[in-house]
Amino acid sequence: MSSLEGESTDRRKYEFQKVIEELTEYEGSGTQLVTIYVPPDRQISDVVAHVTQEHSEASNIKSKSTRTNVQDALTSIKDRLRYYDTPPENGMVLFSGAIDTGGGQTEMVTRVLEDPPEPIQSFRYHCDSAFLTEPLAEMLTDKGLYGLVVLDRREANVGWLKGKRIEPVKSATSLVPGKQRKGGQSAQRFARLRLEAIDKFYQEVAGMANELFVPRRHEMDGVLVGGPSPTKDEFLDGSYLHHELQDQVLGKFDVAYTDESGLYDLVDAAQDTLADAELMQDKTDMEDFFEELHSGELATYGFEETRRNLIMGSVERLLLSEDLRADVVTFECSDGETQHEFVGRNENPEAPTCSDDSTAEQADREDVIDHLIDIAEDRGTEVRFISSDFEKGEQLYNAFGGIAGILRYSTGV
User: Which domain holds residue 348?
Assistant: First the structure.
């Protein structure tokens, strides 16, 4: 995956995360918030028919206000569906309902999220006092694409680990004879035939893995191999895998079963390795930052300083904490001067004083990550989202305000 594709994916995930957090805060009085998950292979006409049926059945709801709100939500969803001939590539999720705004008041909210990070697997209709966001949230926490191989001398299974989802794909059964030779065969001949059968089976397993993994080798984060000893050792030591896959093997693990359940056992056994691999790029970025901070001149941090360097085009990598939730408030003075204030998500800043001692007027407010990424994209700056699940990632958020960068050249800013 190229860095540009990675940045685009990260930003999309962040945009989804923002909407999910907003939707999670909403509550309805009674079961009146409607959520519909539409997989990419579902006909829009089928979804419309389902919504129409639910609208009709909602007339049986005893509470007048709940009945009205549910039917209004379904009508709003139906209106939105008119703009689609087919679902987007990964499907879409529709949210609609009357949310509580306090003081007994409600407000109708409708959102459509297109093309989530992973394809939606099945159609779901949900009506409750809260929107159903958990399936989307799970997609956003899904990180990594790993190839899985489990084998012994009897059978083998190959599949994927996509985030948290394990997908068995291919399996094979061997013709390797048991250790006891049949009558009439010399021990030497039997041993040779058995080794030939083992070699042929290993080639078959490698063929399955190569066919599945090689086309996606540039977007994979690694390969995990499991099985009993000495099988997995023989398989890897024999270099049966494509050489690029061989270089991506993160480890070999003892696994008792080699059917589909063995793939799950393999992932369980590799948890420590997976955790380290997932954070490896984040750790590298933060190590580079701290090295420059302590002994170089190419580190920048904090909103104001990093923003100035971004505008100058001097930032090579912009590092943003995944936990950062804040806004940028733009103020304008009568003489055309513009000032930007970094504030908490629910914080209202005081208006700054202009150079002529007048008070600036608030002109705009936007998410700080969107604000900084827009500048970064115009300047060709790489953007990295840093997890706080390790010490230096946590320091980025707590000690540096969640914003830092590594410069192309020293600016003295």
Answer: 279-407
Select from 174, 153, 164, 151 the least CA-distant residue to 260. Answer: 151
Give the per-residue pLDDT at 197.
Answer: 87
The closest of 95, 89, 138 to 114, measured between CA atoms, is 89
Q: CATH code at 134? A: 3.30.960.10
Please answer whether residues 316 and 310 qualify as being in contact, where contact means their C-beta atoms are separated by less than 8 angstroms: no
- Output the pLDDT for position 242: 95
Cα separations in angstroms, 254 against 259, 275, 350: 14, 18, 61
- Same domain flag for 164 and 106: no
Q: What is the DSSP letter of 214?
A: G
One-letter amino acid at 223 equals V
Between the alpha carbon of residue 287 and those of residues 277, 283, 290, 296, the distances in Å are 15, 6, 5, 12
Separation CA 343–CA 345 (nearest Å) = 7
| Strand stretches in 228-332, DSSP E | 249-254, 299-301, 315-321, 326-332
The segments of the chain whose pLDDT lies below 50 read 1-7
pLDDT for res 276: 79
Report CA-CA distances (Å) from 42 to 138, 164, 293: 21, 24, 52
Calculate the alpha carbon distances from 292 to 85, 107, 285, 318, 401 in Å.
Answer: 52, 50, 11, 14, 18
Rg (CA), the chain: 28
Candidates 266, 388, 254; CA nearest to 322 is 388
The three-state secondary structure class of 27 is coil
User: Tens digit of pLDDT for each residue in 153-186?
Assistant: 899 999 999 877 789 999 999 877 666 555 555 7
Domain identity same for 155 and 238: yes
Tell me if 162 sits within 8 A of 142, measured CB to CB.
Answer: yes
Residue 182 confidence (pLDDT): 55
- The verdict on 116 and 174 lying in the same domain is no
